[in-house]
Amino acid sequence: MENLEEKTRYIMKKYGISANKSLGQNFLINEEVVENIVGASKISKEDLVIEIGPGLGTLTQSLLENAGKVIAIELDDRMLKILNDRFFMYDNFQVINEDVLKVDLADLIKKEKNANGLKNAKIVANLPYYITTPIIMKLLEEELDIESITVMIQKEVADRLIATPGDKQSGAITYSVYYYAESEKIMLVENNSFIPEPEVQSEVIKLNIRKSPAIDLKDKDLFFKIIKASFMQRRKTLMNALVNGGIIKDKAQAKELFEKLGLDINVRGENLSMQEFADLCDEL
Ligand code: SAM
């Protein structure tokens, strides 16, 4: 097989492309990583795949061979000609030149599934690192009709996303991810797997969307508000964070509530399990 690094350099030279750092462009040149991402996403001809940020089309090529249809969403219009030149012979390829955060994905998935008789939708991407969190949150919070999200992101963010709620590495986003999905670590990726090399290590993770959320909540919005408030003031006790964040009126009310729930008044938010946060939320 043609060397992926040479092929990437050739395409970049042919089209006069230099990587745009502000768009988070680090092009993948490691064949083994491509195979692992596509393998982990377990796509078949019955699947609609939405690829975010196809860039020069490295992952896209492999996705097209395996999926029923691939819709690639790319913000950089320099990539359109490259993608269309490379994949004009595939009738299962479509590119949308747009910021993924502005795309109505729910509508897109519904229309595509209806029109093409595709059974499942899956997201696959080597994400632009400067907007990893907003993209993941959009994919989860919009409760899209998708089966899984297989993405390469910076290792540090991956560790936080897939931590178990209540673990040392957890942050507010850990609880969101856990609520919506079961996560899997796929592989660590060294910096020299890209042109140009990113300054941080990368990791491929897979989020398998749950059929129903991890826990039952009476008020989902309040639940995530409580979690955000407790992690915004990580160094403070949970009680102070909730009073300062305006979630509980005053300390007296907080003490009463904590006592009722059997929570230590000095506990920090990061030490609470998902269920303990849920109980607190329900009680409020
Ligand atoms: N998939 C290619 C690969 O693996 O070599 C490129 C990955 S590169 C890390 C991220 C890609 O996302 C770039 O092509 C970049 O132009 C694109 N991108 C950046 N911001 C975007 C946005 N808001 N919406 C869609 N694509 C975006």
Keywords:
alpha/beta, 284 residues, 42% helix, 7-stranded mixed beta sheet, single chain, 9 strands, 12 helices, elongated, Rossmann fold, binds S-adenosylmethionine, 18% strand, Helicase, Ruva Protein, domain 3
Characterise this structure.
- The chain is of the alpha/beta class and 284 residues long.
- It folds into 2 domains: 4-209, 3-Layer(aba) Sandwich (Rossmann fold), CATH 3.40.50.150; 220-283, Helicase, Ruva Protein, domain 3, CATH 1.10.8.
- The chain is built from 12 helices and 9 strands.
- It has helices spanning 4-14, 31-41, 58-66, 78-87, 105-116, 132-141, 155-161, 172-180, 220-232, 238-244, 251-261, 274-283; strands at 27-28, 47-52, 69-73, 93-96, 120-126, 148-154, 181-189, 194-195, 202-209.
- The strands form 2 sheets. The chain has a 7-stranded mixed β-sheet with strand order 4-3-2-5-6-9-7, with helices on both faces.
- α6 (132-141) links the parallel β5 and β6.
- The longest helix has 13 residues, at 220-232.
- The protein is elongated.
- It starts with a helix and ends with a helix.
- S-adenosylmethionine binds at residues 23-28, 52-56, 58-59, 73-76, 79, 99-101, 126, 128, 131.
The structure class reads alpha/beta
Named CATH architecture of the largest domain: 3-Layer(aba) Sandwich
Number of domains: 2
Bound molecules: S-adenosylmethionine
Number of helices: 12
CATH top level label of the largest domain = Alpha Beta
Radius of gyration: 21 Å
- CATH fold-level name of the largest domain: Rossmann fold
Q: Write down the secondary-structure element order.
A: HEHEHEHEHEHEHHEEEHHHH
Can you tell me the residue ranges where pLDDT is under 50 for at least 5 consecutive residues? none
How would you write the strand order of the largest sheet?
Answer: 4-3-2-5-6-9-7
Biggest sheet features: 7 strands, mixed
Question: How many strands?
Answer: 9
Query: How would you describe the shape?
Result: elongated
**Mean pLDDT rating:** 95
The level of helicity is 40-55%
